[in-house]
Each structure stands twice: as structure tokens, then as C-alpha cells.
Specification:
Elements (H helix, E strand, L loop, with lengths): L2 H8 L2 H20 L6 H21 L4 H26 L11 H6 L1 H5 L11 H12 L1 H9 L8 H18 L8 H8 L1 H10 L14 H8 L17 E7 L10 E2 L2 E2 L2 H7 L3 E7 L7 H10 L9 H4 L8 H7 L3 E6 L8 H8 L3 E3 L1 H4 L4 E2 L2 E2 L1 H17 L4 E6 L26 H26 L5 E7 L11 H11 L5 H4 L1 E7 L6 E2 L4 E2 L3 H9 L20 E3 L9 E3 L2 E4 L8 E3 L12 H19 L8
Parallel strand pairs: 1-9, 1-10, 4-12, 4-13, 5-6, 5-9
Antiparallel strand pairs: 2-3, 4-11, 7-8, 10-11, 14-15, 15-16, 16-17
Helix pairs in contact: 2-3, 2-4, 3-4, 3-9, 7-8, 10-11, 19-20
């Protein structure tokens, strides 16, 4: 395009930038909503942009072009952020994401590993115009002229009113929608972003006196047995909870071209209680949210990470419970304790001690800290010291080497991938998990040699998914279809393993549904520790065959997993979509009663945690 043509178009910036934003909205909708050339984006995104453009035309007498370019850059940034956030988290970004800017910066390599080059086309006009005005002689002259393009007429006032009315028409009928992605699609991305700024985050609190264990169990639809199976089977033993980074259940027992991916986990699983229908329950905080849910048996907050929203509270927790029963407590993580505000989380949970990067040092570092090999070696040495005191301990170990984007150093490769997996996201994930399993094998050996293996109840689970559906390209999806024998779905994506090993526990596979919120009550039963004074929203899954697991963040609000299947609501329950649970061939049959009870459980948990005492009152 020549300088003359550019000048001709930018004298009419309303038309030029409208066309640019139509193209950008098409790109954003194609990635996020999987809709090409959506007519609906014209009715949702463009009125928002026109409202801003009309303000410029109506009130700016000079430098209109500068205002247009500013609005264009802002909207471009919103669309690009929405694309990248969706590819990484599978949710629609809002201004609340600013609260986690430090964390997103820390995982920028993970985020940008998901970027297809064509996403950058969204900035093409910004770069062309920037070059024109900064480096082109005619552009610089035009810029200096500061041409008065004329004050907008009343027609722009009328168009502003019409555009604003259309924005409200898109927003108001969809306020009550449960599904955030559906809500953004019905409102339009730009309207949705504005709506979240002005919408009130309000919890309809249940009175503390009405939040009882009986009320929780009733909402869950369970009855606690008078004489639970395996109660106290591990009484007096140490408790070791190993949270493995991004470990999904399909890896357990998986062979690719005859080669086991997780041979060490497979060997332990065959000697343990194994729960293959187990699910993640994390949110924006990912790994740190898993730590919160496992150690409290509460649900994640309605928005934000638990480390941002709940750390001002004195949280009843598994570390406090075990300390009350004579245990030492410590948590081990090779990253800096301030990442995801873990220092405050650990204080709120009442951990006796924590060991982070300062303890593990800078040996064999990749991703965010020392390798799992270093983690396990130094942690085992510390556990031996704790055990030597004669007092039992509860230790949580957080692995990290199999972290997104799973590009581990070549010297850590422990397997050769088949050619079809090379250079793929799925292949990198499998290779990283193969290394994590290798390091886990060293942990098992060290615990056995120290005598801790036979004197501990050991619970192993994945913290969250590693292969989100929305992060996979066509080749990755084909590989997952090869692995599963069917299309990779939401139930598969959220499915993580739980393995429980301990003397006195016979090896068996239990197919009842469970989630991370169930780990604490299950551990309490096996250790013979009473939960009488600890309100909990999980259940001892050894003794329950039914379950109801409300999900947040990675699945839209109102979603839940139960023995009846996985349900994802649309605008309400009526237009829901249902899927079988991960290891079931039965057609899903979730009910509105389950849906309402799942929402009730979230309300009870939110109300309970929000009314807990502040840390300063402890």
C-alpha cells in the first residue's frame, strides 16, 4: 500500500479501524470459540468498538488518529490476551488476571510455546502504521500537520446511543449464564470484559451456624458408615503425600510401541490401592490450588487462586490435624516459596516447616528449580532426620520436573520416542513424564533403603492436567486418539491417578469416582485420625461408591463430575452437555438435582471459608 493510499484511508479512520477490528474479532473467535467468519461477532464486538469510535468523532477536534490508534492497540491487546490465555488455561481472560501477572510472567515460556505464528497477524496493522508514522517521511509530515478532521456531528451521537443500546442488549440477557465461555460468546469478548469490571463479585453467604457436616453430607448425597473399612489400617505410620506435576491417569499402564512410559509408577500401583476414576479440582493457582484443596478439603475460591483469596485466613487443615495427633509436619518444593504466594499459604495451613529453593539450592536446575532427582534425594535425607526423632511425620512433596511446556534437557531423556511423536506437544509431555517416573523410581528406592517405605502411608496423585484439549493441534489430537482409542475429551483431560500404598493395604483397583478434595478424609480414615471437629467437603472414597465433585475454572461454573457422568451447563442446566466419566462406557445421566446440589456445595464452602477467623486473630 502506497503512502498516498494509506493517507486516504486514515483520513477516514472510522471505516479503516472498523475493518481492522472485524478481522481481529474473526481471528479471536476462530481460536476461542472455534467459529470461522462468525456473523455474531459483528453484532457483539463492533458495537463496542463503534461506541468508542463515536466518542472520538464527537469530542476530539485534533489528533483523532492518535486516539483511534490507541483504541485499536488496546482492543488488539485484549483480543491477543484472550487468545493466549484461552490456549493456556481454557478460560476467558478477565481483568482479574492482573492479580497473577507475576506468575504468568514466570511461565511465559509455557504460554508462548502454545502460540501459532498466525496469531501475530493480529498486530499487523499496528506494525504497519507504526512504521509509517515513525520511519516514513510522508507519515511523519502527516503526523506533524495534526490535521483537524472536523468535530463529529450529531449522527455520531445517534450512532453512539445505538451502539451502546446494542451492547446492553448483548449483555443484560446473558448475565445469569453459568458457562463463562458461553457468556463471552453471547455477550461478545469486549462486552464480557467490560461486564466483568462492573459486575459485583457477591457471595450469598450461608450463616456459619447452618454450615454443618450433616448439611455437607446431605448435599453430597452420602451417609458415613458407622464402621468404615480399613479404619486405622495405617495407624501410627508416617504420612507421605507426593503431588506429581501434570500427571494424568492415561499414563498409568500405558505402553507405546511396547515400551512402558511409567514403569515405576506401574510397579507401585500393582501393590497398592489404585483409583483410576480420580479428578483434578484446581483453578487459577494450578499446583498451589492442588496443595490447598488436598490439605483443607475445601473447594477453590469462585475466582482467583486460593493463595490470593484465602491466605488471610486461619485454615483448618491436614497439617494442623496431624500436628494435633502428635505428628511433625513439613512440605518440600524446589521452587521459591514466594511463587504463587506459597509462603502465606503455608502459614495459613499451619505447616510446621517448609523447604524451598533455599534448601535445595541450584543443583541440576531446569524449569523453576532443581530436578526431581535432587528433590527426592535431599527430601529423603531430611525425612530420615525427622524419623530419627521417634516422632511420626506428615510430609508433602511437590514434584516439578514434568512441567509445561515439557521440554526437558536432552541429558534427561530416558526414552526414545517413536518418530510420529517427535516434535509434538504430546511427545514432549510423554518424555517429560517418563523422566519424572525415572526420578520417582529413585525416590522409592531411597525410601526402601531408609526403612521409610514400609513405615509410611504413601499417597501419590497428579496435581492437574498436562494436556489441555484447547492446547493441542491436529497432530496432537490424533496421537491422543491413538492412545485412548477414541476422541480425547474433557473427562479424560481432568482425569488424574490416585495411588495409595502402605503395609496392610491389599492391592486392588477401586473404580469409584474421587477428587483431590477426598484425599484428606481418606488419609484420616486410614490413619485412624478423627475428623469430628474438622468440617470437610471431601469423603473417604474407600468407603463410598457415589460422589459429587463440583468443578470450577478449567470447566465452566456449574460443571460437576459424578458417578452419573460429567455435566457442563450452557446458559443454564437446560442446555447442558454431558459426557461419560473417563473410564466408563455407560451413557451419562446426570440430573438437575445433582446440578443444584453441586452449586449448593460450592456456596457452603465459599461461605464457610469466608467466615473463618483472620490469621491475626490466631
Amino acid at each position: 500500500m502506497t503512502s498516498i493510499n494509506i493517507k486516504r484511508w486514515i483520513v477516514k479512520p472510522f471505516i479503516f479501524f472498523t475493518i481492522m477490528l472485524i478481522l481481529k474479532s474473526y481471528l479471536a473467535w476462530a481460536v476461542i470459540f472455534d467459529v470461522l467468519l462468525p456473523w455474531k461477532s459483528l453484532l457483539t464486538e463492533i458495537p463496542f468498538a463503534w461506541a468508542l469510535f463515536c466518542l472520538i468523532e464527537r469530542f476530539a477536534s485534533k489528533r483523532k488518529l492518535g486516539y483511534y490508534m490507541t483504541v485499536n492497540l488496546l482492543v488488539t491487546a485484549i483480543f491477543f490476551a484472550a487468545i493466549m490465555y484461552f490456549k493456556y488455561y481454557g478460560v476467558i481472560v478477565t481483568y482479574h488476571a492482573a492479580e497473577q501477572v507475576n506468575q504468568v510472567t514466570a511461565v511465559r515460556n509455557s504460554v508462548f510455546s502454545l502460540m501459532d505464528p498466525y496469531y501475530l497477524l493480529i498486530f499487523a496493522d499496528v506494525l504497519v502504521l507504526g512504521y509509517y508514522f515513525l520511519f516514513n517521511r510522508n507519515g511523519r509530515i502527516y503526523k506533524k500537520e495534526q490535521i483537524n478532521l472536523g468535530r463529529g456531528s450529531r449522527k455520531f451521537s445517534a450512532l453512539f446511543a445505538a451502539s451502546l443500546a446494542l451492547c446492553l442488549f448483548n449483555v443484560l440477557p446473558n448475565k445469569a449464564s453459568m458457562n463463562e465461555i458461553k457468556k463471552a460468546q453471547e455477550m461478545g469478548i469486549l462486552n464480557y470484559e467490560a461486564y466483568t469490571i462492573f459486575a459485583q463479585d457477591k457471595i450469598d453467604l450461608v450463616k456459619a451456624s447452618d454450615i454443618t457436616q450433616e448439611a455437607v453430607d446431605s448435599a453430597k448425597g452420602i451417609t458415613v458408615p458407622a464402621n468404615p473399612k480399613l479404619q486405622g489400617a495405617a495407624k501410627g505410620k508416617n504420612l507421605i503425600i507426593l503431588q506429581m506435576e501434570s500427571l494424568q491417569n492415561f499414563l498409568i499402564g500405558l505402553k507405546i510401541d511396547g515400551k512402558e512410559i511409567t514403569p515405576n509408577l506401574n510397579a507401585v500401583m500393582k501393590e497398592s490401592l489404585y483409583f483410576p476414576n480420580f479428578y483434578q479440582m484446581v483453578g487459577q493457582g494450578n499446583t498451589s490450588d492442588a496443595e490447598f484443596v488436598v490439605n483443607t478439603s475445601y473447594y477453590i475460591p469462585p475466582r482467583g487462586a486460593a493463595t490470593q483469596m484465602y491466605v488471610d485466613k486461619v485454615l483448618p487443615s491436614l497439617p494442623r490435624l496431624m500436628e494435633k495427633n502428635g505428628y511433625q509436619t513439613a512440605t518440600f518444593h524446589t521452587n521459591d516459596v514466594e511463587f504463587w504466594n506459597r509462603g502465606e499459604l503455608y502459614s495459613s495451613l499451619g505447616w510446621g516447616k517448609y523447604y524451598d529453593h533455599r534448601f535445595f539450592g541450584d543443583e541440576d536446575v531446569f524449569f523453576f528449580g532443581p530436578s526431581d532427582e535432587v528433590l527426592y534425594r535431599k527430601t529423603t535425607a531430611k525425612l530420615k532426620e525427622m524419623s530419627a526423632s521417634g516422632q511420626p511425620f506428615y510430609a508433602q512433596i511437590i514434584s516439578m520436573s514434568a512441567h509445561h511446556p515439557f521440554t526437558i534437557p536432552e541429558e534427561k531423556y530416558k526414552m526414545k520416542l517413536p518418530e510420529r511423536y517427535e516434535g509434538t506437544f504430546v511427545g514432549d509431555y510423554i518424555r517429560a513424564q517418563n523422566y519424572a517416573d525415572y526420578a520417582f523410581g529413585q525416590l522409592v528406592q531411597e525410601l526402601k533403603e531408609s526403612g521409610l517405605w514400609d513405615n509410611s502411608l504413601i499417597m501419590i496423585y497428579g496435581d492437574h492436567m498436562g494436556l489441555p484439549i484447547y492446547s493441542l493441534d491436529h497432530d496432537d489430537k490424533e496421537l491422543m486418539k491413538e492412545i485412548y482409542g477414541h476422541e480425547y475429551g474433557y473427562a479424560n483431560m481432568t482425569n488424574i491417578p490416585l495411588i495409595i500404598h502402605g503395609a496392610g493395604l491389599s492391592a486392588q483397583t477401586l473404580e469409584q469416582v474421587g477428587g483431590e478434595i477426598d484425599i484428606m478424609p481418606t488419609a484420616a480414615n486410614l490413619l485412624g485420625v478423627s475428623l469430628k471437629d474438622h468440617l470437610h467437603f471431601g469423603q473417604d472414597i474407600v468407603n463410598q461408591t457415589g460422589n459429587l465433585l463440583p468443578e470450577r475454572y478449567y470447566l465452566p461454573s456449574g460443571s460437576f463430575i459424578a458417578s452419573s457422568g460429567l455435566l457442563i451447563p450452557g446458559n443454564s442446566f437446560e442446555d447442558n452437555t454431558q459426557y461419560p466419566i473417563a473410564l466408563s462406557n455407560k451413557p451419562p445421566a446426570s440430573t438437575e438435582d445433582e446440578y443444584n446440589r453441586a452449586l449448593r456445595l460450592l456456596q457452603l464452602s465459599d461461605s464457610y471459608v469466608s467466615q473463618l477467623p483472620l490469621k491475626k486473630s490466631e
